[in-house]
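Can you make up a protein sequence with its backbone structure tokens?

===
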Amino acid sequence: MEARAAGAVVLRHPFNLGYGVARGAEMLSLMLACGIVSRLVSGVICDHIGGLRTLVLGSVLQGLALLLFLPFDGLASLYVVSALFGLFQGGIVPSYAIIVREHFPPAEAGARVGTVRNMPVHRLPLFRCRPRPYRLPCRPRLPRFVGSLVAGCAGF
């Protein structure tokens, strides 16, 4: 899941639970800060286990963190889950370049990294091709979470 889509989930979910947009913005900031740490840590992990295994590990952990948003609705637990989500999502996109470097000749690396890096952007219209009506804050979010999880796995 791209950080932009994840940010929408993290920003909107606390608002839907009645905590307000300011708390959602704080959770988004925490998620993005943990994403920076995650990029550094995932680089070390990538050096030890390889790019493809790092991608699989990050994707599975990101899916688990996304599912953790469902059972928790307390403010403190949402901060913890947002931090976990940031830690798990930050290293996924950089691992794409490592995978290309490991599996393709150097002459093809530039074009392939650009193609792989832009795939999430090109995938978005497939899942957002219809206009959506305004969502009420009390509307259940389970279908959105499941849809995001399936879209993330499909992109994987």
Summary: The mean pLDDT is 77. The two ends are 9 Å apart (CA to CA).
